[in-house]
Amino acid sequence: MKSVMARRDALRHLAIFSAAAVVPGFLTTGCSKKPSCEDVSGLSPADATVRRDTAAYVEATTDPAKKCSNCAQYEGKGPDACGGCKVVKGPINPEGGCKLWVAKAT
Ligand code: SF4
């Protein structure tokens, strides 16, 4: 009887320790996480040139009023994910920006 109780206590403690190990990881991954949208390996050389030179796309714009997430060309997938753009190919950061920014129609 005593060993059954000891085993139950051990399993109960194991469950508590396991939950404690998982919760902090969940909290850190559940927080807002800035996406990295710099992988242009799937682009053609021409599309990569437009992105880099013509549009001068950057991952984080210096002008918060003109970021991708409030551009008419942006095709978003949420604040924590790379979106797309109608004119600049490749993954687009919602906090990014470029010279082709256009205000959304109001
Ligand atoms: S046009 Fe430029 S600013 Fe607008 S969504 Fe595309 S990359 Fe972002």
Order of helices and strands: HHEE
Strand segment tally? 2
Strand order of the main beta sheet, please?
1-2
SS class: mainly alpha
> Helical element count?
2
Strand portion: under 5%
Low-confidence stretches: 14-30
Tell me the CATH superfamily of the largest domain: High potential iron-sulphur protein
Please bin the fraction of helical residues. Answer: 25-40%
CATH topology name of the largest domain, in short, is High-Potential Iron-Sulfur Protein, Chain A
List all distinct small molecules, including ions and cofactors, that are bound in this structure: iron/sulfur cluster
For the record, give the distance between the C-alpha atoms at the N and C termini, rounded to a whole number. Answer: 73 Å
Assembly state here? single chain
- Described by the principal axes of the CA atoms, the overall outline is globular
CA radius of gyration is 23 Å
Characteristics of this structure?
High-Potential Iron-Sulfur Protein, Chain A; mainly alpha; binds iron/sulfur cluster; single chain; globular; 2 domains; 2 strands
